[in-house]
Write the structure tokens for this entry.
Amino acid sequence: MKMVYVDNNATTQVSPEVFEEMAPYLTKYYGNPSSMYTFAGQVGDKLKEARVKVADLLGAAPEEVVFTSCGTESDSTGIHAALISNPDKRHIVTTRVEHPAVKSLCEDLAKRGYRVTFVPVDHKGNLDLDYLFDHLSEDTAVVSIMWANNESGVIFPVPQIAETLQDRGIVFHTDAVQTVGKIPIDLSSVPVDMLSLSGHKLHAPKGVGALYVRKGTKFSPFLIGGHQEHGRRGGTENTASIIALGKACELAGQHIEDENTRVKQLRDKLEKELLARIEKAAVNGDRINRLPNTTSIGFDSVEGEGILLLMDQFGICASSGSACTSGSLEPSHVLRAMGVPFTSAHGSIRFSLSRYNTEEQIDYIIEHLPPIIDRLRQMSPFWKKSQTGST
Ligand code: PLP
């Protein structure tokens, strides 16, 4: 069966070049980089190379990169480090639309006695900056704001926030798991203190991530153990995956223009054609200020799960809300925070493209989705009511 994968914000295909780069470090060069002999030393050298490649994509120095196991670990490490390094401060500022990696952590920290401010967004998914700045206080230890939202794709003004927070004694962490590789990032001119990224969102394997820690930022390890990562993250390095992440970052830098031209045009075509062919369909979130690969579209009076099931019969892989909330019938917290009407939030689908998508695949979705929505609406009591105007 044909397969059209447009769920790249959930995870991505490992690039063949990335796989080729990592494979020998699983089979042939399996030494522990901490060992003294040459056989292991060559693995250590390759790790150094990977660190430089990750740093280059971010506009950072190699020593500022700490390898982790995933985006979630990077987020937890960054936020905990900020709290442990500032033990007298008990206030955290984050947003209402963070990924659970930050949102659930902050909810848990609230149960453990921290005060947490969740900054709201408007109906386009843009952050209420006045609310954010008005809620900072002497007691604020850390501000954690995602750079771009995984569901709507809306980009937050991280450079502006970083400038404002600079020199205020508040650690600024950003979850850039969906941002790295999609839009250019240059941390040499954006003063964030910590930034999280994850390999499997940019064509490296699952199970590897990184945390950028700006030189001079107070730090405390989350995984305490050996001396790996200069004592900043204990545990034998996931060498092959780190090497893969390095290669993936190098390739991401080369493909970023394609992402912002060809991939963006494909996304725009998909969106335009679906909106033209399907009545009562609307894009969730700001259509200008967002990632080039993402669109979230609400189809009124149908269930997202129903759409996913029928699209699956045609081999089309997308997601309703975020992948992590699929399976739950509640509209996602992101769409609720944006005030997307209930009937539309329930029928929202996120399409997220990558450099491996083709125009032919987009045409395939444009051909098959409208009849699917039509079919579901014939069975929808909400749709029938909206058509007859009865209450
Ligand atoms: N942050 C954001 C914005 C994400 O989209 C995700 C994954 O979907 C994560 C964090 C978690 O990353 P990982 O799956 O590598 O733990």
